Amino acid sequence: MSLTKPELLQAYRKMYEIRAFEERLHLENTGGDIPGFIHLYTGEEAIAVGVCENLTPQDYIGSTHRGHGHCIAKGCDIRGMMAEIFGKETGLCRGKGGSMHIADLEQGMLGANAIVGGAPPLVIGASLTAKTLGNKGVGVSFTGDGGSNQGLVFEAMNMAVVLQLPTIFIFENNGFGEATGHDYAVGGRNITRRAEGFGMPAVRVDGVDFFAVYEAVKEAVQRAREGGGPTAIEAMAYRWHGHFEGDPMLYRAEGEVERLRAEKDPLKIFRSKTRKQLSDAELDAIETEVNALVDEAVSKAKADPYPPAENVLTDVYASY
Amino acid sequence: MAIKTYREAVKEALAQEMERDERVVLIGEDVRGGQAGTASPEKLATIEAFGGVLGVTKGLWTQFGSSRVIDTPITESAIVGMAAGAAMTGLRPVAELMFMDFFGVCYDMIYNQAAKFRYMFGGKAKTPLVMRGMIGAGFSAAAQHSQSPYNIFGSTPGVKVVVPSSPYDVKGLLIQSIRDEDPVIFCEHKALYELKGEVPEHAYTIPLGVANYTREGTDVTIIALSAMVHKANAVADKLLKEGISVEVVDPRTVSPLDEEGILESVASTGRVVIVDESSARFGFAHDVAALIASQAFHHLKAPIVLITPPHTPVPFSPPLEQAWIPSVERIEAAVRKLMEA
Predict the structure, then answer these.
(1) Residue limits of the Dehydrogenase E1 component domain (chain A) (predicted)?
(2) Whether B247 and B178 share a structural domain
C-alpha cells in the first residue's frame, strides 16, 4: 500500500464527512427547512475521495447534480455548503446556487452541475488552461452512467484526445439514471469500452473500494501531468438513496438497499482493508469529530440569515 | 487614417489583443485549417488552409502558433464548453462558431453554463469569453446558415451581445469584448466583411451599451443594427434631398442596450421605424418597440413601424431570399408613410 498512515486517516475522514453530511441531509430534508431538491451521494464516497486524494488545489473538478461528495472531497467548506443548501446568505454561493450549483473556484471546484453531462466540456476547458499555461494541472470530470449517454460528453472525450488534454473522465456507474437502470439506457452496457473507442486508455474499477479508485486515478493523473493525454475511468458503485430525496424507489428490489448497506459500504470496506494500519479507536475518534462538525454546520445554517431580497439583482455580470 | 475592410478590422483586433495578452487564444474549426490533409508534409507544416471559414483569422496561426490558434473538430458543444471552462480558469478564449445558426447545437454551454456561472456561484466566477460567429442572409446560404439570432441571445441574462455595423466599430467593440470580464456573443454580418472604412492602426475600445447615431435628423428615427444600418443610412441620404430629415440610431449592442440613446432620439422626432433582421416574433424590434411604447408613448406622433423578415425560415432561391430580407424599399415606404401621419 503506497499511502502513509496520515493519508489513510485523511481519506477515511473525507469519506466519513460525506457520509455524515448526506445522512444528516436525509434527516433534515424531512423537516422541510431545505428548499428545492437534493440528490444524495451516500454509498459512492470511495469514488469522490479516491479521485480527489490524488489532486491539489490547482487541479480542477467539475461535478454533477449529485455533487455534495465531490465538493467535500475537493475541499469545500462543510459549513459553507450546508448554509448554501439551506439557502442562506452565508452559503458558498451566497444562496444563489443551492445544492445543485455548489462551487468554490479557489478549491478548484468548478461547480456541481444540474445539466446531465454538463461537466466534461467545461473540464476540458480547465485542462486547456493548464496545458496552455504549462502548470502541470489536470481537470477531472464526474459524470454518471446516465450522463455517459449525452452527446456533449462524447464531444468532450473526442476533443480531449484530439488536443491531448490533461483530463480524467470519471464515470460513476451507480446503476441508475433517475429511475431507469443502466442496463436499459446504456447501449452496449459498457462505458469503458465506449471511452476506449475515442482513443484513450480506459479502465473499469470497483467503485466501493477506495484503493481501487485511488490507484487507477493515480496512474491517470500521472500520465496527464506528464503530457500523456486523457484517461477514462468507470467506477462501479451503488446509489443507496433515490434519485432525489422523496423518490419512493418503486423500481428497486425489496431489501436491496439493506443488502448494499451491509455488503457494499465503502467505509466498512475501507476499515477492513486498513485493519493492520489503523485502529477502530482512531477511526471512531474521526467520526466523533466529524459528527460534531456536521452538527455545528446544521445549527449554524439554520440560524444564519437568508439573503436580502435586493440580492436578486447582484452578480449577474461583472459589469453592465 | 487607414482604410480597411470589416474583415481586416476583425483580424487586427484579434492580433493586437493576442499580442498584448498571451491568455487570449482562438478556438474553432479551421481557424487555421489543413491539419492531416493529403498535401505534402512540407506544405502542411506551413499552410493555413482556411483561417476561418471566410478567411478572417488567416495569418494568425503563422504569427502565434498552434498553442494560441487551436483547430478543433466540428463539435460546437465542446468548442464553447471548453472555451467557457478555460475562461473560468484563467484564459481569455475567443471561440468561433462559424455560423451563429450553429448555436442551436451547443446552446446549453452558453444558456445554462457560461451565462449563469457568475450568478449561480454568488459572484465568485468570471467568464471572460468571446463567442464569434456570422449572422445574416443574402448569400443563398439557406435556412441553416443565414439566421441572425441575436434576439435569442439578448433574452439571456449573463451574456452580452454585440452586433457591429462598420469596420471602425467592429475593431473597437471586439477589443472591448475580449477585455470584458463577462461572456460576450459577437455577431459579425457576413454581408459586411468587404465593407471598407476608416480604422485606426492602434488598439482602441468602444464601450458596450453605447448607441451610435450614424445619421442625425429631426423628422423620423430609424433604429437598425448591423447590415440594416447601411440600408437605413441609404434611405436617410435619399430622403434628405426631399427635405425629410431622418436620424439613424445604431445601438451596436443588443445587451446591454443603450435605452437612453434610443429614447432621446425618439423624444426629438416622435416617429419611429425599427429595422431588424432577427425575427418576426419576439425579436429585437419587438423589444425596442415595447421599450419606446412604455417609456416614450407621449412623444409618439404615429404608431411605431416594425420592419422584420416574415415569420418563416430563410429561403434559398435568390428572389425568395430577397423577398425575405428587410429591404431599402420597405424602409423608405415606412418613413414616407410616417411623414404623412
Answers:
(1) 13-309
(2) no
Cβ-nearest to A129 among B90, B124, B256: B90
- Chain A's closest residue to B79, CA to CA, is A121
The distance of B33 to chain A (nearest Cα, Å) reads 14
Where do runs of H (alpha helix) occur along A181-279? 182-185, 191-196, 210-225, 256-263, 266-273
Statement: the pTM of the whole predicted model exceeds 0.95: yes
CATH topology for the A5-303 domain? Rossmann fold (3.40.50)
| B312 touches A: beta carbon within 8 Å | no
Note whether A159 contacts B78, CB cutoff 8 Å: yes
Statement to judge: residues B32 and B167 lie in one domain: yes
Q: Does B258 touch chain A (CB under 8 A)?
A: no
> What value of ipTM does the predicted structure carry?
0.96
CA angle B49, B54, B58 (to 5 degrees): 50
Question: Do the chains contact at A317 and B86, CB–CB below 8 Å?
Answer: no
- Say yes or no: B187 and B308 in one domain: no
CB contact under 8 A, B78 and A155: yes
> Does B173 share its domain with B48?
yes
- Please say which residue of B198, B232, B258 terminates a domain: B198
Residue A1 has pLDDT above 70, yes or no: no
Where does the pLDDT of residue A73 fall: very low under 50, low under 70, confident under 90, or very high at 90 and above?
A: very high
Restricting to B residues 37-96, those with a Cβ less than 8 Å away from any Cβ of A are 67, 70, 72-73, 75, 77-91, 93
- What is the count of structural domains for chain B? 2
Write down the mean pLDDT value for chain B.
97
Whether omega before B167 lies within 30 degrees of 0, making that bond cis, reads no
CB A119 within 8 A of CB A51: no
